[in-house]
Amino acid sequence: MNLATSSHTLLKRAAMAGVALSAAFMAFGCVSTGGATGQPAVVPAAAEAATFEQDRKAIMAMAGDYRVRFDFNETVSFLKDYKVTEPSRSGGYEVVRVIEDSGNFISLQHILVIEAGEEKFPIKHWRQDWRYEPDSVLIFIGGNAWENRVIPAAEAKGKWSQTVYQVEDSPRYGALGAWDHSNGISAWTPPAELRPLPRRESTTRDDYYGVLAMNRHAITWDGWVHEQDNSKIALIDGEQRIIAREQGVNTYRHYADFDENVALDYWNATKDFWAAVRVEWSTFETPGTSFGLTVKGEPEPIYTPLLELADNIQAGTTTTDAAIVEARKVIAQFTTRDVEPLAQRIAKAPDAAAKTASAAH
């Protein structure tokens, strides 16, 4: 089994098993930031600068090598005939690196390291971008569509947006919140925002279309934790309904007893390709606009070819330049500025049986 085939097969197995397909590299580029300016100072400049540096320190602390655990428990049903599901438990090893840092913008790339017997494989995981005082935030609006919500300068003052991206750098969700450093803890807690189904359920369920999620990130003595308070939302008879609630705790504990070079070698071979892919996706992030995917449900037709192109670069069977050309074609094929109403976007999603069959092959 070659590297590309093995990595792609393990990606599907990881998705079915419930893995949420969900120190620093030398930064190879900086991005421009659109933070709000010209607002009256609420606190003295020196104190504001000190808080800003505390915020940055907390974000940068999420980089490292980790043993991760993902725990999710449905806690309550809000429909008469709905039975809460069994808890979901998964985990593994994850490398997190800073790939861009321009002061008020920080990008962290996650890469899973999968051990299958004697073989070890990297799987490009999620990415989180942090922007200080942004002029817009990318917000999920259901049915594989997003809006670039404009943020007034007064609302953005002193806050950071976190935008989360999928394995192939298409968006997942975003939110705006302030870091708090009181009581000996650095934690970021935004208001609840909508996000897509987690991959652990998007391949098996079609009874809800999104999660109204509160995401808290807090730095711990041995790493960091991502706490979630999730409300699963369905469209029933044309009305949005919460069908169940779920608590999630993802723990990242510093861990050195695995081969981080599996992830580092992959990234060093493919980072220029993924930088170009990020630029291509960023063209859709114009403040005040919306866009979506033409793929409904699990976006496998997008992430499968992009991940395979990266695998082929590492294997030496294609060049970075050639792969970038093909990646741009894939993104163009499956994106649109013509966003249909939510009910139409959801109605076109494949049912759970079809998703399960697709994930199994």
Task: Please provide a brief summary of the model.
The chain contains 9 helices and 16 strands. The protein has 361 residues and is of the alpha+beta class.
What layout of secondary structure does this protein have?
Blueprint: H1 3-17, H2 45-60, E1 64-77, E2 88-101, E3 105-116, E4 119-132, E5 136-140, E6 145-150, H3 153-156, E7 160-165, E8 171-177, E9 179-180, E10 187-188, E11 193-195, H4 199-202, E12 210-220, E13 223-236, E14 239-254, H5 261-282, E15 290-293, H6 300-315, H7 320-333, E16 335-336, H8 342-347, H9 352-359
Antiparallel strand pairs: 1-2, 1-14, 2-3, 3-4, 4-7, 5-6, 6-15, 7-8, 9-10, 10-12, 11-12, 12-13, 13-14, 15-16
Helix pairs in contact: 1-6, 5-6, 5-7, 6-7
Structure in words:
With 361 residues, the chain is of the alpha+beta class. The chain has one domain (3-359). It has helices at residues 3-17, 45-60, 153-156, 199-202, 261-282, 300-315, 320-333, 342-347, 352-359; strands at 64-77, 88-101, 105-116, 119-132, 136-140, 145-150, 160-165, 171-177, 179-180, 187-188, 193-195, 210-220, 223-236, 239-254, 290-293, 335-336. Strand 2 and strand 3 (105-116) form a beta hairpin. The two termini are 16 Å apart.
Count of domains: 1
Q: What is the straight-line distance between the termini?
A: 16 Å
Annotation field: number of helices: 9
Roughly how much helix do the residues carry, as a percent range? 25-40%
Shape: globular
**Kindly state the mean pLDDT as a whole number?**
87
Largest beta-sheet details? 12 strands, antiparallel
Number of strands: 16
Task: Give the low-pLDDT segments.
Answer: 1-43, 351-361
Rg: 20 Å
